[in-house]
Every structure is written in structure tokens, then in C-alpha cells.
From TrEMBL:
Domain UvrD-like helicase ATP-binding: residue ranges: 14-286
Keyword terms of this UniProt record: ATP-binding, Helicase, Hydrolase, Nucleotide-binding
Protein name listed in UniProt: DNA helicase
Record flagged with keyword Hydrolase: yes
Source organism: Luteimonas terricola
Annotated residues for binding of ATP: A35, G36, A37, G38, S39, G40, K41, T42
Taxonomic path: Bacteria, Pseudomonadati, Pseudomonadota, Gammaproteobacteria, Lysobacterales
Length: 623
């Protein structure tokens, strides 16, 4: 490697040096690091933390202080902690965990905030109801919310201690929801000097990763704290506004910063090939004019846009044809292996349809309180099938009798220690267990495909496994909603009725859908969402853009590509999302856009200079 190329590939080291200079406990300085896609933002964060650990670790431990780091996901927390070898002088948390750590235990202050906030929300709903039309669905929802919030307000004094779980549903009368935790912590930081002192005393340095997507209320509050305590508190923001994909982030973050802030920047893209960098530079050109530079040793790479009719009958087949085209174009046969390339979809339902677990997914996803657990695999009524039934069925299909015996011995009430110890006849008890196993596995005889409900009924009858509470018939489907409306319980009855209906639909789905579902939620599938891959990278990326199938309103690729008339904020939010997805590719990138006007999309992207003529293919390759 020549001296010139070595300088080029190390051109951003000055940014890391500038950040290290800011993180001085005796003279702290706040900063905003601009770091575009693939520029090594996490590497800079870890370098900064390593510098603080080496230089000030002993001082921090003596003072009982830590460096605080807020990042977006639990996975990111785990990765940063791993790189730092779980050093106790650094505390890494998600925004909700961080916010709760500030206000947990302040029960009187939380209660008074809720009292004021709930009263204001009720008055706002009453004003809307007075202006709106009665008898409509919107009116019914407003009346229900007024009753529910009124009941919560009336019961505030009965709550002795408020609780919260960053990963839970938080539906008890003593529980705060996710939005409330952020709002309360931001308000307390803005208005309570003692809260500001607690924060600064605990974290003299606070670094925020993905700051462009951090809630604007909390960001504004932290700016207030920094302005008051600038001599003893350093706030470090790392991010790129072009990668802001959530609506509650702060607009214009990084602009009009105080004069005493440092503004280091990183221009080198270490991840993407030259052609992809050229594309993402064009995409963001009209937004802020920021341009990235490829490494001197970057490959040229490939980019192709496939514009397909929105009414394409077999979209998975069309996408396989695209993958085959990319394999031939690049000479990379791994494009035809689903395990070796990542397909990015707009909405989880699109992955469920393509992977074959649509019915079970749709049934449960319609219930708001089920969604988080459904998407991370922790929903108890699903885990019953994924962690107990599926391993048993797999073991049987592999004719692994030892595994079958182990699973039943570890999980079945029929073979629990107490059951065997107090059984009058242990041989009979073991026979009962074997019969229960045979009865369950008989559901798959002659290549049958049993439903979740058929399996549940079999297990409930034999007692082979303990049935989760959510799957027991605990909801009376004949409950009269009107009888409880006056008591302010309508919301709860509606929720329970909605859950019962969703579970019934889930139980009607075939059990065969559980395996692809488990593959998807474990992150092992070749599908992921556009929003879920921020910060990740893959050799081969296919971005699937289908507004109709995604059924969303926040993003519109058809508008971005000129397939529809623009005129709303969805164009710019989609542009940012497009930038994020394209910038995941390390080698080659295939963009699949389903549109009602394919020819118009082609004309638009060529006019914008995003692609060369040979890079845009209209229609399914090979057809």
C-alpha cells in the first residue's frame, strides 16, 4: 500500500483525537460527531470510551462515577459492553432504561406529574369530542379514553409505588408506559435542579449513540443540563441526520450548536464499494450535500434497480429471478443462496408472507400488547409451542428417542420429581407419559399438518405439558360491553375480547408455521426490516420496496421514485430510509421497486442521476 493510500484510509483519525480531547474530567467539552454510514461510528465510540477508561478510570472509581452511554437497542448495548470487556466504569443502556434509572423511586413526583398530565389529556379529549360528530368510531374511542384516563386519575392515590419494564407491556394500574417514562424524565431534567445534579454527579460524561433517533424531549432536556453544568458535564452526540428514521427524533440536530461545542466529522466510508457510495451520495445530495469518500482499496461493486409492476402475481418468484440475475452479473453464486444474502422488507408481514408464517403472525400482531413479545419471540403463548412442542417434534422426526425422553423428563408435569415420588405406581405413571407422547405425535401421522389448536387440545387432554394461562379459556365471550361501560372498564373488556379473538385465529393456523417464525425472530432468516438493520452490514443486499404490501403511510417509495405525485413529508422520510438500506451493502446491491408506473420510475431515477441506463431493469429478469 502506498503512503498516499495509507493517509487516505486513515484520514478520519483526527476526529477521534478531537473527541479524546473533549473527554477531560477537569475540562469537559461537549461535541457532535457527524458520522455517515459505514464511517466507523461505533469504532469511534469504543475508542473514546477506551481513552476515558485508561486516563480517568481510577478517578471515576474513586468518585463512584461512570461514563454513561445511551444506545438504541439491547443488541447494541451488548456489543459495546463486549468490546469494553464489561468495564464497570462504563454504563451502557437503552434510552428507556436510562430514563427509568433517573426517575425510579420518585413516586410522589411521578404521581403529581401524572395527575396534571392526565387532567390535561382528559380536557383535550373532551374538547375534541365537543367539536366532533357523535356516534362515530372516533367518538367512541374518545369517550372510551376519557373514561379510562378518568379512572386512572381517580386511582392515583392508591398506587404506592410506580413500576416500569423497558421490554414489557406495562399495563397494570401501577405501571408507566414507555412514552410516559421519557416525558417524565425529560420534564424533571428540565425543571428540577436536584435531578440535574444527580445526573451530572452520576455521569460526568454522557455519550449518545444514534442521537438523531433519540427522543427530542430527552435531547432538549440534556441540552439544558449541559448549558447549566458545562464546566463539569460533557454531552457527546454521535450520529447522522440522514439516518434518522423515527419521527420522534429531533429535527435539525447538529445545527446551531452552542459555540463551545466541538464538531468533528468522519468522511471515509469503510463499508461500501465505490458504486454504492456514489449512489448514496447522490441520494443525499439535495438534503445536506454531505459526500463520503471510499477507501483507496474499495472494490467497484454493483448496483441494479429492478422496477416491477405493482400487481406482479408471484413476488417471491420475481425476487428469486432478481437474485439469479445478480449472481450472473457479479459472478457470485451466493446470491442464489438465501442464507448468504439479506433481503430487506418494509414490514414484518412481508417476511411472514414470504417465509410461510403469515396466518399465525397476522392473528397475534393485531393485538398491540402482543406485538413486542411476538417480534422478539418472548410471547408466552407462542413460546409454549416454540420451546416445548417444536423441539419434541424435531426430535421425533429425527428418530432421536433420547432427545424425546430428555425433553419430556425436563418439561412434563407427568414426570416431575414430585409426581413420580408420590405416584402409587411409577410404572403406570411412566406408561401414562409414553401414551401422552404417542398421542401427541400421532397428529403428524400420514403427513398430516395439525393446527396449533389441535395440538393444544391434545396436550390439555393428556396433561403432557402445562398449558400457559393465556391459552386457557379465561375470557367469557358473552360479556356484555354495555353492562361495564359505566364503570370505565370498556377499554379492558375490549382488550380482552380482542385478545380472545386473536388467540382463536392463532390456534386455527397450522403448527408448521412455527419453525419459519422462530428462524425469523431469532435473526437467522435472510429477511429483515429496513428499519431493523441500521448499524448492520451484509455482503449482498436486496432491498424490497412495495408500498402496497407494506400498507404503511409513513413511507412511500413510489413517491420517492416519482411513481406518484409527491407533496408530503413521507418523501423525505423514505429518502432517509432508502439511504440506510442501500448503505448496508458491502459488495453488491439489488433494489426491487414494485410500482404502478414502472416507466415513470425509470425516467425519474435516470433524470436524477442516481443510476446509469444499464443499471435500471424494468420487468422481471428473464421474462
Amino acid at each position: 500500500m502506498t503512503a498516499a493510500s495509507m493517509i487516505n484510509n486513515d484520514m478520519d483519525s483526527s476526529a477521534d483525537e478531537e473527541i479524546a480531547g473533549c473527554l477531560d474530567l477537569s475540562s469537559p467539552k461537549s461535541f457532535f460527531l457527524f458520522a455517515g454510514a459505514g464511517s466507523g461510528k461505533t469504532r469511534s465510540l469504543v475508542k473514546a470510551l477506551d481513552h476515558v477508561r485508561r486516563t480517568f478510570g481510577e478517578t471515576l472509581r474513586f468518585r463512584g462515577q461512570r461514563v454513561g452511554v445511551i444506545t438504541y437497542t439491547n443488541a447494541a448495548c451488548d456489543e459495546i459492553n463486549r468490546r469494553l470487556e464489561f468495564d464497570s466504569t462504563v454504563e451502557v443502556s437503552t434510552i428507556h432504561s436510562f430514563a427509568w434509572s433517573l426517575i425510579s423511586g420518585l413516586n410522589h413526583d411521578i404521581r403529581e406529574w401524572l395527575r396534571t398530565n392526565l387532567a390535561a389529556e382528559i380536557e383535550e379529549l373532551k374538547a375534541l369530542e365537543a367539536k366532533g360528530r357523535s356516534g362515530t368510531k372516533a367518538s367512541a374511542e374518545r369517550i372510551s379514553k376519557i373514561a379510562s384516563k378518568g379512572k386512572r386519575l381517580a386511582n392515583l392515590n392508591t398506587v404506592r409505588r410506580f413500576v416500569y419494564s423497558p421490554t414489557g407491556d406495562n399495563r397494570g394500574r401501577d405501571a408507566l408506559n414507555h412514552s410516559e417514562v421519557i416525558k417524565i424524565s425529560a420534564t424533571f431534567l428540565q425543571t428540577k435542579p436536584i435531578m440535574q445534579s444527580i445526573l451530572v454527579g452520576r455521569y460526568p460524561i454522557l455519550l449518545i449513540d444514534e442521537s438523531q433517533d433519540t427522543n427530542k424531549l430527552l435531547i432538549d432536556a440534556l441540552f439544558t443540563v449541559q448549558s447549566i453544568h458545562r464546566e463539569s458535564f460533557a454531552l457527546g452526540l454521535l450520529g447522522d441526520m440522514m439516518q434518522r428514521i423515527y419521527s420522534d427524533g429531533k429535527e435539525g440536530l447538529g445545527q446551531n450548536l452552542p459555540d463551545d461545542w466541538a464538531t468533528p466529522g468522519k468522511r471515509l466510508n469503510h463499508r461500501c464499494p465505490k458504486r454504492v457510495i456514489g449512489l448514496i451520495n447522490k441520494v443525499r445530495q439535495t438534503v445536506d450535500g454531505q459526500e463520503q469518500i471510499p477507501r483507496s482499496d474499495s472494490a467497484e461493486g454493483w448496483v441494479r434497480l429492478f422496477v416491477l409492476p405493482g400487481d406482479t402475481a408471484d413476488k417471491p418468484a420475481a425476487e428469486r429471478a432478481v437474485a439469479q440475475y445478480m449472481a450472473e452479473l457479479t459472478g457470485d453464486n451466493d446470491w442464489t443462496s438465501s442464507a448468504a444474502c439479506k433481503s430487506l422488507i418494509l414490514e414484518h408481514r412481508m417476511a411472514a408472507r414470504r417465509m410461510g408464517f403469515l396466518e399465525m403472525f397476522v392473528a397475534l400482531h393485531q393485538v398491540e400488547s402482543f406485538r413486542t413479545g411476538l417480534l422478539d419471540g418472548s410471547l408466552p403463548l407462542v413460546r409454549f409451542f416454540s420451546e416445548q412442542i417444536l423441539p419434541l417434534v424435531r426430535a421425533q422426526q429425527l428418530d432421536d428417542r433420547f432427545a424425546v425422553a430428555r425433553i419430556v423428563r425436563e418439561s412434563s408435569p407427568l414426570l416431575s420429581g414430585d409426581k413420580l415420588r408420590y405416584a402409587e405406581d411409577q410404572t403406570m405413571q411412566l406408561r401414562h407419559a409414553r401414551e401422552a407422547i404417542s398421542s401427541l405425535l400421532s397428529l403428524w401421522h400420514t403427513d398430516a399438518s395439525p393446527t396449533f389448536g389441535e395440538i393444544l387440545g391434545n396436550i390439555a387432554a393428556s396433561g403432557l405439558f402445562a398449558v400457559p394461562e393465556a391459552l386457557r379459556p379465561t375470557v367469557d365471550r358473552d360479556v356484555s360491553l354495555s353492562a361495564v361501560e359505566e364503570d370505565g372498564e370498556l377499554d379492558e373488556v375490549n382488550r380482552q375480547t380482542e385478545k380472545a379473538k386473536a388467540i382463536e385465529e392463532f390456534l386455527a393456523a397450522p403448527f408448521s408455521q412455527i419453525e419459519p417464525y422462530v428462524t425469523y425472530v431469532s435473526g437467522k432468516a435472510h429477511f429483515d426490516t429496513h428499519q431493523g438493520v441500521k448499524g448492520l452490514e451484509f455482503p449482498r443486499v436486496m432491498v424490497i420496496m412495495d408500498d402496497t404490501e407494506a400498507r404503511g403511510f409513513l413511507f412511500s417509495y413510489d413517491k420517492l421514485f416519482g411513481g406518484k405525485e409527491a407533496g408530503d413529508t413521507s418523501v423525505e422520510s423514505t429518502r432517509r430510509l432508502f439511504y440506510v438500506t442501500c448503505s448496508r451493502a458491502e459488495n453488491s446491491l439489488a433494489l426491487v421497486a414494485y410500482s404502478i408506473q414502472p416507466d415513470r420510475v425509470r425516467q425519474f431515477v435516470l433524470k436524477e442521476g442516481w443510476f446509469e441506463s444499464e443499471e435500471v431493469i424494468v420487468g422481471i429478469p428473464g421474462h
